[in-house]
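Entry type: protein chain
Record version: 2
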Amino acid sequence: MVAKRPRDPNQFIKPPGYEGGKTALNEFIRKHLVYPQAALEKRIEGIVKVEYDLDHKGKVVKATAKSDLGHGCEEEAIRIVKLLRYSTLRHRGVKVTFHKSINIVFRLPPPAQQGKITYTYTTKPKSEVKKEVKQKKGGAGYTITIKPGPNT
């Protein structure tokens, strides 16, 4: 039996990772994603799978959408992927191109809640209103009394 020697981790080519990990990558996508107007109007939701190539500097050199939602979603997903910058690794002087894929999720924003308008009013009881008319010479006079009811 031949004993296997332990493998040196430096002998393998490690794929580049997004600085900050998956959480930072998702945050970057959420921050820079602009929902296409046509997709908003048609209420389109879904996932666009984008395959892309990374050069030795960590830049995206080629990106293609592998799923089709239409209404500008593919173009927006490709635009987002081309903004990505990955950390670079030294591979013993070898310039390596990496092939990766990512799912860009298009989810409609929640509907804006319309503010409720609340009206509050208070009523003050009106005091009795008396109207007196001065008597004319030789004529009769009268007095009007208005009492507020329960509905006023």
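Comment: The CA atoms of residues 15 and 98 lie 7 Å apart.
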